[in-house]
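TA notes, week 10

Several of you asked for a full example with nothing omitted. So below is the full record: C-alpha cells for the whole chain, then the designed sequence directly under it. When grading your own attempts, check the secondary structure regions first.
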C-alpha cells in the first residue's frame, strides 16, 4: 500500500507544479489555493509512504514521478517544446525510476 501512497504523492507533485504555473506568480487566487492543496497532499502522502519505506528509496521516486509528470504536463498543457534528445533523457529518467523500484526488493 505504501507504493500506492508514493505514486499518489508523486501525482500531487505534478498537480502543484502545474497549478503554480497557472497561478501566474500566485496572482490568481484559485490556482494559488490549488497549488497549496496539491503541495500539502503531496507531502501528506509522501509522509505516509515514507513510514514504511526507506527515505533513500521514496524520495528519488517521488521526485522522479513529479519530474516526468511535470514534463508531460508542460508539453500537453502549456505546449512546451522538447527536442528528441531531451525525450531520450526523459525516458532514461523513467527507466531509472522503474529500476530503483525493481532493485529495491520491496
Amino acid at each position: 500500500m505504501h507504493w500506492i501512497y508514493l505514486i499518489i504523492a508523486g501525482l500531487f507533485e505534478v498537480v502543484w507544479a502545474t497549478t503554480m504555473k497557472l497561478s501566474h506568480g500566485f496572482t490568481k487566487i484559485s490556482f494559488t489555493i490549488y497549488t497549496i492543496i496539491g503541495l500539502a497532499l503531496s507531502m501528506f502522502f509522501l509522509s505516509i509512504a515514507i513510514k514504511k519505506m526507506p527515505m533513500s528509496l521514496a524520495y528519488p521516486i517521488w521526485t522522479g514521478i513529479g519530474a516526468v509528470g511535470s514534463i508531460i504536463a508542460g508539453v500537453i498543457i502549456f505546449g512546451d517544446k522538447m527536442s528528441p534528445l531531451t525525450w531520450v533523457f526523459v525516458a532514461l529518467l523513467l527507466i531509472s525510476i522503474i529500476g530503483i523500484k525493481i532493485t529495491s526488493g520491496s
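The chain has four helices and no strands. Use that as a sanity check on your answer.
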